[in-house]
Design goal:
The complex is a heterodimer of chains A (121) and B (110). Helices cover 0% and strands 50% of the residues of chain A. With 121 residues, chain A is mainly β. In chain A, the strands form two sheets. In chain A, strands 2, 4, 5, 6, 9, 10 and 11 form a seven-stranded mixed beta sheet that branches. A four-stranded antiparallel beta sheet of chain A has the order 1-3-8-7, with no helix packed on it. Chain B has strands spanning 4-5, 9-12, 17-21, 23-24, 36-40, 47-51, 55-56, 64-69, 72-78, 87-95, 98-101, 105-109. Classes of the chains: A mainly beta (121), B mainly beta (110).
Chain lengths: 121, 110
């Protein structure tokens, strides 16, 4: 069974940093692209970032470009999301999502349970 | 600035049929946008229903179907059930690794 378990969320002050992790199991992690999608409280889904299977190609929404970094360690079956210079508007549940293919172009497939990030003083 | 639009809310009677659409402000959204549809109930992670316009994900009942209607990706629920009451989101591939979600449709079954 494909499982994605996100962790690392929490309460952080504006301007602070946080690193999210997403542990994958049940599939060949190194063969698939991965995404991060977030959902602010009471709001819809927002596409944030993606990385291809090898880690060589990454994408960022304009709202996080230059502040957030997506990466992966295929030897540990883990996806990461380093978030810096956090703002109140980054407050959201962050979901890691498996793609259907090696590049982040085939469509989102399996969703993890999400981890909550709250940016507040 | 591309914007994906969905009906904010729809209702359907149990056993009835309802169609949700996913519009793109810059024009038609064809199969080349690889539209996908997701279902989300309160407090839960989204679940993928449809990918690549009309392919159901594993385990998704066949009462859910995807298509393109008048230049808009569409999700049709035939024979709606009470537990179909959820929020539904579409997403379109905009190129260069970029995906854009619609604002979601809140579906009520009553």
């Amino acid at each position: 069974e494909v499982q994605l378990v996100a962790s690392g969320g929490g309460l952080v002050q504006p301007g602070g940093s946080l690193r999210l992790s997403c542990s994958a199991s049940g599939f060949t992690f190194s063969s698939y692209a991965m995404h991060w999608v977030r959902q602010a409280p009471g709001k819809g889904l927002q596409y944030v970032s993606a990385i291809n299977n090898s880690g060589g190609n990454t994408y960022y929404a304009d709202s996080v470009k230059g502040r957030f970094t997506i990466s992966r360690d295929n030897s540990k079956n883990t996806l990461y999301f380093q978030m810096r210079s956090l703002r109140a508007e980054d407050t959201a549940v962050y979901y890691c999502v498996k793609d259907r293919g090696a590049e982040a172009v085939y469509g989102m497939d399996v969703w993890g349970q999400g981890t909550t990030v709250i940016v507040s003083s | 600035q591309n914007v994906v639009t969905q009906e904010p809310s729809l209702s359907v009677s149990p056993g009835g049929t309802v169609t949700l659409t996913c519009g793109l402000n810059s024009g038609s959204a064809s199969t080349a946008f690889y539209p996908s549809w997701f279902q989300q109930t309160p407090g839960q992670a989204p679940r993928t229903l449809i990918h690549s316009t009309n392919t159901r994900s594993s385990g998704v009942p066949d009462r859910f179907s995807g298509s393109i209607l008048a230049g808009k990706p569409a999700l049709t629920i035939t024979g709606a059930q009470a537990d179909d009451e959820s929020d539904y989101y579409c997403v379109l591939y905009m190129g260069s690794g970029s995906w854009l979600f619609g604002g979601g449709t809140k579906l009520t079954v009553l």
